[in-house]
C-alpha cells in the first residue's frame, strides 16, 4: 500500500486517517489534508490495494473487511493504534466497516457521502457479473468519467479545476497496468454492491459525523437497474436523515446544492463544517 503520513508543524493534537473513494486517490484529499495539518492533526492517507499508486493485483479477493484489515495493519506499522477514521464515497463505506471491526481503535468516525446507505439489491437492482463490469471499465474515457462526475459529484455543474481528477483517473486506465486496474475496479464494484453495511450501522458506538451533499444521487447499479427501479435509488437528501437517525451519537451535516464530492465542490464550506465538529 502506498500512503502519505504527514505531521503538522508543532505537536499533533490527534491522528486522522483519510480513505479515498472508488474514482479517486489519496491525493484527491489535498485540500482536506492542508486544512487538517493547519489545525494541528497528523494525517495518514493510504491508496487502497488495487488503486492509484498501490499494487494492482491480477487476482485478489476484494472485501471491505480485507481493505479495513490492510488499513489497520498499515496504521500499526506506523505505531498508530487510535485515530479518527474519515472516508468519502467507497471510503466512507470502508470507514464504517473499519469502525465496526476496530471500534476500540476508532476515536471518531467521519463519513462523507458514503456508499452503502441503502441496499441496492434489496431495492430491485439485479446482480451484474464482474466480467460484464470489466468490459465497461475497459471502455472508460475522459468523456465517460467527466459525464458521470458532473451528473453525480457536482450537481450537474462543472468547473475546469475538476479536470485534474478526471485526468488523474484516466491516466491509470491508460497506463501500463490499465487492464489490471480495470479488473480491480470491476472487482471493487462487485464488493460494494454485494457487501452492504446499512444493517450494521446502528452498532456504531463512537461519535460520528455524516456529511452529505443533498444533490448526491450516487447508487451502485443504477446504470443497469430496470427503469422502474432507477427512481428509487440514490436520494441522499432523504438517506442522510434516515441513516443518521439510526446511528447512535451521530451528527448530520447537509450541504444544500452540493453533490457527491462537497470537499471538492465547496471546500471552504465543507472544511469549516468538518473542523467545527472535530474541534
Q: Widest sheet: strand order?
A: 1-3-2-4-5-6-7
Query: How confident is the prediction overall: mean pLDDT?
Result: 97
Shape verdict = globular
Summed up, the helix count is 10
Amount of helix: 25-40%
* Class by SSE composition: alpha/beta
If you had to describe this structure to a student in words, what would you say it looks like?
With about 280 residues, this protein is α/β, with parallel strands linked by helices. It is about 40% helix and about 15% strand. It is built from 10 helices and 7 strands. The protein has helices at about 30-40, 65-75, 90-100, 130-140, 140-150, 165-175, 180-195, 235-245, 260-265, 265-279; strands spanning about 5, 15-20, 40-45, 85-90, 105-110, 210-215, 250-255. Strands 1-3-2-4-5-6-7 form a 7-stranded mixed beta sheet, with helices on both faces. The model has no long low-confidence stretch (mean pLDDT about 95).
